[in-house]
Amino acid sequence: MRIFRVEMGRGDVLRSTMTSKMPIAGVPGKAVRSRSRVAVALDAERMRALAEWTARTLETDSPVPFGAEIVHSKSGERLMRAHNAVAVENDPSAHAEVRTIRLKLKGFSLQGYTLYTTCEPCPMCMADALWAGLDRVVYGATIADANRFCRQIQIPATEVAKRSDMTCAVEGPVERERCLTLFTHPNMQRAFRTWATKRGKR
């Protein structure tokens, strides 16, 4: 049985978000804000919950290590969650981040929202985040981590964001080791071998 769930709901209220401003190196006139301990801890808490939710697929016939969710940057209300569904939907663009953005409630702008993802977004997903106007992208495992097990386009999400005239903060890795367990789980390892076999038959 294949299980690829999408969830909508509410997250924890964000009690403290940003503190003092500091300049971005090499970018005149731009500034970012250093983040409070509460905000950093909340990112970690949300990433742990997302990794736990994504891990449910590991006990199905179609496990995936990629999960994503969108939450309101200030209130913490969850807008949407989704898993990678490339194989299920026969769609190479059905990455967790893209699906989560596609499945948002209404409108084309996600300004005011943050995307959490268990793995650093590939260039396609990061570009989608930029076009959607997200405030932030927070990721768990890195592209290099994922590339140990499956194919990746090895361009960092920060590099994609830097080359854009749209603004989206990229933060990570957060809870990297926990997110890595999604890749190293025995059922996921078997699935990776199947993916490699299928690619070889093309």
Strand order of the largest sheet: 1-5-4-6-7-8
Largest sheet: 6 strands, mixed
Shape: globular
The secondary structure category is alpha/beta
What is the arithmetic mean of pLDDT? 84
| Total strand segments | 8
Strand residue percentage: 15-25%
Q: Can you walk me through this structure?
A:
- Strand 2 and strand 3 (31-35) form a beta hairpin.
- The strands form two sheets. A six-stranded mixed β-sheet has the order 1-5-4-6-7-8. Strands 2-3 form a two-stranded antiparallel ribbon.
- It has eight helices and eight strands, in the order E-E-E-H-E-E-H-H-E-H-E-H-H-E-H-H.
- Helix content is 37%, strand content 20%.
- It is α/β, with parallel strands linked by helices and 202 residues long.
Feature tags:
202 residues; alpha/beta; 6-stranded mixed β-sheet; two-stranded antiparallel ribbon; 8 helices; 37% helix; 20% strand; globular; disordered N terminus
Kindly summarize this structure in a few lines.
By secondary structure, this protein is α/β, with parallel strands linked by helices.
